[in-house]
Amino acid sequence: MPANDSAAMTAAPFDRSEPDAGNGFQAASARLIVASHSRLLHRDLLPDDAADDLGRRLYGAPFIVLAHDAAADPIFFYANLAAQELFAMSWREIVRLPSRLSAEPLAREERQRLLDRVAREGFIDDYGGVRIAASGERFRICGATVWNLVSEAATSVGQAASFATWEPLR
Questions:
Q1: Among 66, 111, 156, 168, whose Cα sits 20 to 30 Å from the Cα of 142?
Q2: Whole-angstrom Cα distance, residue 29 to residue 129?
Q3: What SS3 string covers the chain?
Q4: CA–CA distance, 104 with 87 (Å, rounded to integer)
Q5: pLDDT of residue 11
């Protein structure tokens, strides 16, 4: 996001505890991610977004879902199981990771341009780029959707991304 916008956006105090039945598999974060997606893209992220088991279904979805806060150097606060596997990180590792570190150093400028575009336009649904897992494996994301996360009070609190297609790079 542009530097002048980051001052207006403050990081929400997200619960970064590991998803489990006790927190509804991060139900509050899942509702924010799903509701923001529906509001901006006018389509559901999950079939039947109104289901009671939204947190568990998003956490176990067969596609990647990640979200970071709105800090000046955003940190992931959500990564479903598919994202944890792809990025070769546990929940505890990934929710402490500045999102910029999910890209290689040379790809970080490209990533920042993407985030700036999302901040301006609300969402994009045509992103592709190279990312790197904790294992050192590189992969190209194809056809990702990235959108702003907006609280019920209409405050920007971060951004989320979802994609189902990637290819390993050797």
A1: 156
A2: 25
A3: CCHHHHCCCCCCCCCCCCCCHHHCCCHHHHHHHHHHHHHHHCCCCCCCCCCCCHHHHHHCCCCEEEEEECCCCCEEEEECHHHHHHCCCCHHHHCCCEHHHHCCHHHHHHHHHHHHHHHHHCEEEEEEEEEECCCCCEEEEEEEEEEEEECCCCCEEEEEEEECEEEEEC
A4: 13
A5: 47
pLDDT over 80 (residue 22): yes
Please write the tens of the pLDDT for every residue from 32-90. Answer: 999 999 999 999 999 876 667 999 999 999 999 999 999 999 999 999 999 999 999 99
Q: What is the pLDDT of residue 49?
A: 60
Question: Pick the residue with more confidence: 90 or 154?
Answer: 90
Please check whether residue 157 is in contact with residue 70, taking contact to mean a CB–CB distance below 8 angstroms: yes
Q: Please say whether the beta carbons of 156 and 150 come within 8 A.
A: yes
Calculate what percentage of the chain has a pLDDT beyond 70: 91
Say which amino acid occupies 66.
Answer: L
